[in-house]
Fold this sequence. Notes:
Layout: E1 3-13, H1 20-34, E2 35-44, H2 51-57, E3 65-71, H3 76-87, E4 92-96, H4 107-115, E5 121-126, H5 132-144, E6 156-160, H6 161-170, H7 177-182, E7 188-193, H8 206-220, H9 223-251, H10 260-292, E8 300-305
Parallel strand pairs: 1-2, 1-4, 2-3, 5-7
Antiparallel strand pairs: 3-8, 4-6, 5-6
Helix pairs in contact: 5-8, 9-10
Amino acid sequence: MKEKKLISIVAYLYNNETTILNFLEKVVGEIDAMFEQFELIVVNDCSTDSSVQRIKEAPFLKQHQVSIIQMSFHQGVELSMNAGLDLSTGDFVYEFDSTFIDYDIDLIAKAFHKMMEGYDIIAVSPEANDQFSSKLFYATYNYFSKSNNKLRSDRFRILSRRSINRAFSISVKIPYRKAMYSNSGLKIHTLEYTKTTQLRKTPEKSHLRSKTAIDSLIIYTNLSFKISIMISLTLFMTTLGVLIYTFMVYFGKDKPIEGWTTIMLLMSAGFSGFFFLSAIIIKYLSLILELVFKKKSYIQENIEKI
């Protein structure tokens, strides 16, 4: 028997004309076999190829509820998927950041059944990260993060409506969904798999991925504060050394130019205070930054029903 729960599928699309139909046919086929009703939401991040046209002409999609969100300009995975989440109405939501499949499609069903054991978020991840840059980012994030849930590369995830509501209650605009879910305080589980094929690199523009990574490290970790403290301590030790040298010169045999020791003492004390105040200011700026993010910043052109 099919499940009666309403399911939403949110998929990111950007210049994937060679993979989009194969992806949708497999995913929609698996979901259709499991659930009585579902909706498919494709977020087109201003593709320049024929991806959207292929979706509109696909015969296997004619009988299903399909929406295409057209973004006004290329805005990256995170903002585009936020737009898809806003439109979704399902009790559970499948998030697909990529149309490439390097996993067994039955993991879609396994993730849902695992969710029924009492979890709010199920991530499906390969046994190892794909790229060195990903490994470096996740290692840095996990080291400085306060969350007990460690981030890693994943292919898709299924979310309960409660986890989505919790994420948007924390921040109206979600700069990095995985970090927000990790910090939601809800039960999370990761299903691991062995890759069946080598995943191709996502076509998303690299500067958007770098921006997301930097924003996430600043907002969700205390990396910037610790770096400022380390720099402040280093400069303070340097200043302390100058201070000791000033006293040695003052009480030494060789007398410096009149007024030199007073100026050096004043400068040493001033710079020491400046370094520590800078660390405090950076901490407060990071908190203000979190508050500033409470706004929606994606821009969509229209929503098409096919």
